[in-house]
Design goal:
alpha/beta; Rossmann fold; about 10% strand
């Protein structure tokens, strides 16, 4: 076994205060980083750090059910994507946080991205799900509509901090989905969703009968400052070059 060297650094042994010793040390480090060898080592450290962060987000994508599509994953792995849909998600998150701080408890929130296919809705949802610091799940509306209350996954979906619901409007049992969304509202959770339906089509499909309760809650949310729907009105990006 190698004995630890417990001798004092020369500066300390000379009676210099600890802050001065640390400043001398960091000055040497900064000077070394400006050398070719130091710059190379720093660049490698940055690459390794980025690779580790990407690997961790890739693992989160798998665990949370984010689609494996290359472009969708590229946005999920991007820590700071830009664009109107990403900003609309940030707005919803900030609004919920502000409401919870103000009211001192859990405040539910729901935001739905609507618009034609290919406008980036799924990419925005994937980024939100991968970036969420607490429990999060990514599910299609059709998969959720087949769940039953006695299922363990139903309870997991209701209680998770963030639920991302893609492809609203193609599910077999919309009334089941409405019931699940109402249960999440009661739990004070955040739900982000996307649909190819227009706002009018969405209202007609989900707000009739039992959906009236969901409509009432979303109306209250709007009155407190967060609108439910964000429209993607631009043309499809599919087949076009460049990022969103």
């Amino acid at each position: 076994m190698i004995d630890a060297d417990d001798s004092l650094p020369p500066a300390l042994s000379e009676g210099m205060p600890l802050p001065a010793v640390l400043e001398r040390h960091f000055a040497k480090v900064r000077a070394w980083q400006k050398t070719p060898e130091g710059a190379k080592a720093r660049a490698k450290w940055e690459r390794d750090k980025l690779a580790k962060a990407c690997a961790e987000r890739e693992e989160l994508c798998e665990l949370r059910g984010i689609p494996a599509d290359h472009e969708v994953r590229s946005y999920a792995l991007d820590p700071h994507p830009t664009g109107e849909l990403f900003d609309s998600i940030r707005e919803a998150i900030a609004w919920q946080r502000e409401q919870q701080e103000r009211r001192g408890g859990l405040v539910p929130a729901m935001r739905v991205l609507v618009g034609p296919p290919g406008t980036g809705k799924t990419c925005a949802l994937a980024w939100a799900c991968a970036s969420w610091p607490r429990r999060a799940l990514y599910r299609t509306a059709d998969a959720l509509s087949t769940l039953k209350k006695q299922d363990a996954e139903w309870r997991e979906v209701v209680s998770t901090s963030l639920l991302v619901v893609d492809e609203l409007g193609i599910e077999a049992y919309p009334e089941v989905l409405v019931e699940l969304l109402l249960a999440r509202w009661t739990a004070g959770a955040l739900t982000l969703a996307a649909s190819n339906l227009s706002v009018d089509e969405f209202i007609a499909r989900y707000f009739a009968r039992a959906g009236e309760r969901l409509a009432d809650r979303l109306t209250q949310q709007r009155a407190r400052g967060l609108r439910t729907f964000v429209k993607a009105t631009w043309a499809s990006y599919r087949g076009a070059e460049g990022r969103l």
